[in-house]
Specification:
Order of helices and strands: HHHHHHHH
Oligomer: single chain
Shape: globular
Structural class: mainly alpha
Distance between the termini: 61 Å
Helix content: over 70%
């Protein structure tokens, strides 16, 4: 095993383990920093896939902007919210989690079937995109657009869904008021 494989497996293990811990961890501060590790390691994997633009975009937009927003939402939330969430540490899976699990499993089943049945080789502009090599005088914006909408569409959309969920969670934490 060469050094490239070791670094790749390290980055992949970091992404998987930190993302898993974000989901399972109830401490908000640790979850924010683990989410930071997940996105940072994911940008390292994009660099390995020769998607430098997506990696830099992820670092600037997602890691920089999103985590700053989450940290501000955490800092602006009241201590009573944090104390009540820490006091209610119960079992990992409860009855109220079942509808969310069913919806998630159905979503992943639909996503798996769609990716399995997709045949991108039939679409002409995708077929022609693989034959192009970039030259210094080429229009790289066109090549970046084609690559973002073909090869890197699924990771790009998954990150945007994660961003939306983080925005909703940050807004929910910031707007929550004390119960009287």
């Amino acid at each position: 095993m060469n050094i490239e494989q070791v670094v790749f497996y390290f980055l992949a293990a970091t992404v998987l383990s930190s993302a898993f811990m974000v989901v399972l961890n109830r401490d908000m501060v640790r979850s924010i920093f683990l989410f930071f590790m997940t996105l940072f390691a994911m940008s390292g994997l994009f660099i390995y896939a020769l998607a430098d633009f997506v990696a830099v975009t992820q670092l600037i937009v997602y890691v920089g902007g999103m985590l700053v927003l989450m940290i501000f939402a955490f800092l602006l939330s009241s201590k009573t919210i944090l104390n009540t969430s820490a006091a209610h540490k119960t079992s990992l899976i409860g009855l109220h989690h079942i509808p969310g699990m069913i919806i998630s499993l159905l979503f992943f089943l639909i996503l798996f079937v769609t990716v399995y049945q997709a045949n991108p080789e039939e679409i002409s502009w995708i077929r022609n995109a693989g034959n192009n090599t970039l030259v210094a005088s080429d229009n790289t914006i066109h090549a970046i657009g084609v690559n973002l909408m073909t090869r890197y569409l699924i990771p790009f959309e998954i990150i945007s869904v994660l961003l939306m969920m983080a925005l909703i969670g940050a807004a929910h934490l910031a707007r929550r008021t004390k119960k009287q």
